[in-house]
Write a structure and sequence with these properties.
The complex is a heterodimer. Chain A is α+β, with helices and mostly antiparallel strands. Chain A is built from one helix and three strands, in the order H-E-E-E. In chain B, helix 2 crosses helix 3 and helix 4 packs across helix 5. Classes of the chains: A alpha+beta, B mainly alpha.
Chain lengths: 97, 125
């Protein structure tokens, strides 16, 4: 399933640089990003990212356990409110919005 | 009775297959073990002598995670996915497939037996 080891993990360059800059100043501030495809590397630990899910930026606080996953895995893109209840009419149906 | 990795006591079967009664040992691992320990795979488990059993047990203890420890590891991995609120964790929580399979049809292994919903027949809205 995986990606070729030769290439190493995919990390979004500009996002990585932004994190590095913060790390050098040992500052912590939320980073707004669209880079859902970016792998979480150890340098990201402790930072909060605002990861775009197509509609809004969701806060993702990176912990050690998340290393190796992609940022997008923690910013859910679908909203499921349950199935339509036939008796009550259209109560709570409709995905997304 | 050979005892390998705790309490597992498969007997009367060729050792290659007897070993596969242990959670975490399948065909490949069973063959690996027997190659490493130089034991004839066709030999019945019950006929193994003391030193052969110890050799297998030693190899298993030193190199493999089996039975309870393996089950614990697996469930910990799943728990980690749940705790980090990852997409895969959510799928585990909901009992749906987490590797991107379709769920409109099929996916019965994860979803369990069909739950029929009344009035779903015929043309859709």
């Amino acid at each position: 399933m995986g990606r070729s080891l030769k290439k190493g993990p995919f990390v979004d360059e500009s996002l990585y640089l932004r994190v590095e800059r913060l790390n050098q100043q040992s500052k912590r501030e939320p980073l707004k990003t669209w880079a859902r495809r970016c792998t979480i590397v150890p340098e990201f630990i402790g930072h909060t990212f605002k990861v775009h899910n197509g509609r809004a930026f969701l806060d993702v606080f990176v912990t050690e356990d998340m290393v190796g996953h992609k940022l997008g895995e923690f910013s859910h893109t679908r909203l499921f409110r349950g199935h339509t209840n036939k008796k009550e009419g259209i109560e709570g149906g409709e995905k997304g919005s | 009775m050979p005892r390998i990795a705790g309490i597992d006591v498969p007997e009367r079967k060729p050792i290659r297959y007897a070993l596969q009664y242990i959670h975490g040992i399948g065909e490949k691992i069973a063959d690996d073990i027997l190659r490493e320990t130089n034991i004839d795979p066709a030999k019945r488990a019950g006929t193994l002598n003391e030193s052969e059993v110890t050799a297998i047990a030693g190899f298993v203890d030193a190199n493999l995670i089996v039975e309870g420890a393996l089950r614990r590891q697996t469930s910990q991995n799943i728990q980690r996915l749940k705790d980090t609120r990852s997409y895969r964790g959510e799928r585990h929580r909901k009992g749906l497939p987490c590797r991107g399979q379709r769920t409109r049809t099929n996916a019965r292994t994860r979803k369990g037996r069909k739950k029929t919903v009344a009035g779903k027949k015929g043309v859709k809205g």
